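Worked example

This section walks through a single chain of length 128. The input is the sequence exactly as stored; nothing has been trimmed or padded.
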Amino acid sequence: MAHNVLVILGLAASLALGLLLNILACALNKSALPLISILFCILAPFPNIICGRMGDEFSGTDSQYKQWGLFITGFLIVFGFGIPSILAHVDKNYLMLSLSLAGGVIIYGTVIVYLRFFHKKDDEYGNI
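Given that input, the structure is written out below as tokens.
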């Protein structure tokens, strides 16, 4: 029980740090556009979660749904890092780029760690 509390506190602190870095990037740029990267970092794992449960469990190969989920997740991750890069190229503000990318990596890492620790997988017979 104490281990879960420490994990939750660490995840909350890392999420707060990632959000702080993205808000600082917005303050330096005097625009709210770098906050778009937060949206993509938070939404990125959900296609894998949704599409991972679809398909035929009895076949030995991965289903097309799982492959599409991986594709959409990759698209969202690239988009989450590409938007701040484009904004930095337009404004020539590379400090904003570094803060936004660091915040995006921390937020995406927090979401992945949360899903690894608290997402229960089905066993062999479909029971949770």
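What to look for: Residues 88 and 97 are 6 Å apart (CA to CA).
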